[in-house]
Amino acid sequence: MQLFDVYPLYDVTPIKAKGVYVWDKNGTKYLDLYGGHAVISIGHAHPAYLKRISVQLNNIGFYSNAIQNPLQKEVAEKLGAISGCDDYQLFLCNSGAEANENALKLASFATGRPRVIAFKNAFHGRTSAAVVATDNQNIVAPINAQQQVTFLEFGDIEGLKVELQKEDVCAVIFESIQGVGGLDEPSTTFIQTTASLCKSHGTKLIADEVQSGFGRTGDFFAFQKHGIVPDIISIAKGMGNGFPVGGILIHPSIEAKYGMLGTTFGGNHLACAATLAVLEVIENESLMPHAKRMESYFIKKAKQLPQLKKIKGRGLMLGLEFDFEVGKLRKKLIYEHHIFTGGSSNKKLLRILPPLSIQNKHIDQFFDALELAMVNTAV
Predict the structure, then answer these.
(1) Which of 287, 337, 282, 280 is nearest to 315 (CA)?
(2) Distance between CA atoms of 311 and 365, rounded to whole angstroms?
(3) Summary count for the chain: helices (H), strands (E)
(4) What does the pLDDT look like over 115-161, one tens digit per residue?
């Protein structure tokens, strides 16, 4: 049997990882500044993470949600305390797409409405409704297209007012910082006005924190910079540091009913152990203030680069936008300098999503390599 060929792959085969590094099958060491799409939050093979999962696996790794699982309550309490969202309710699932799918479904249940407003360059997942709320028609199948989604420019207040006045919108879904879309970030005025408009029209506001959550921006959630209270918050990626975990935080104004949401694997014992380890390390190692310090150092170094148009993002969700496409540059970085970086739908943007434990010396290593790699790349 062959693999279904849907991924363009780099010719690198990692077999070991620790901290901010991975090693391939040939023993070559790579600096990981991408974390597998922002998934590695506390560093590869963190001792506290390994211990939590190993102990749990030796006890019980999985059972369904038909039984009591005190670890889920422990996750909810710890997550609420660290994030400042302790009055929310938690539903656990397995991925970011599943989190957004459940968020959209819940918003439709709560409002009795069918339509969603999303924003251009958004990415919310590849499942039924989440993929239609993703601004990429190439990944929307005909069976998905029956979902009702309206796209607006990110920042279009007047357009939002017009659409919400139709009173058929169940949810407005947004990323505080767009990930795949290229790290575009709306103004605080736009976010606060959106929240106010949603409230006045009975529409649920969904903050997609799948990539930006769990301390990546220096705040636990990126939306917290704007001082709003979303109805639903979706989480995943850095939540499990590599273990598949996702979830949604649900405002207490939304009432739970038996059977309205469900999952087989979501919130299993190992997933909870992974999440608890991440939360404990984020707190114990002060990784959120550390992310802000690393942002400042990164920006200081980046400003010295030639051909740099713009520095985008916050914390350790950062992007370097050049006046040329970065595809060749990324290949040079990985094959010649052994550094993983990320791209986006903005072909001129280099995305940096390292473990939150990254240090100054790793940023120095990146910029030294970047300056060398940029020679003759912009052609």
Answers:
(1) 287
(2) 18
(3) 11, 14
(4) 999 999 999 999 999 999 999 999 999 999 889 999 999 999 999 99
CA distances from 50 to 19, 43, 53, 161, 162 (A): 12, 11, 5, 49, 51
Residue-wise pLDDT for 348-367, tens only, equals 999 999 999 999 999 999 99
Q: How far is Cα 48 from Cα 245, in angstroms, rounded to an integer?
A: 18
pLDDT of res. 306? 84
What is the 8-class DSSP label of residue 43?
Answer: -
Q: Report in angstroms the alpha-carbon separations of 190 from 81, 83, 115, 195.
A: 28, 23, 21, 9
Q: Provide Rg for the chain, Cα atoms.
A: 21
The H or E element that residue 160 is part of is helix 157-164
Q: How far apart are CA 296 and CA 303, in angstroms?
A: 11
Closest CA to 314 of 275, 253, 356: 356
Cα separation, 153 vs 188, in Å, equals: 15
Query: Could you tell me where the beta strands, DSSP code E, fall in 6-99?
Result: 14-18, 21-24, 29-32, 89-93
Residue carrying the six token digits 């949604």: 248
Q: pTM to 2 decimals?
A: 0.97
Whole-angstrom distance, CA of residue 35 vs CA of residue 291: 15
User: Is 97 strand, coil or helix?
Assistant: helix
Domains along the sequence of the chain with CATH = 47-284 (3.40.640.10), 286-357+368-379 (3.90.1150.10)
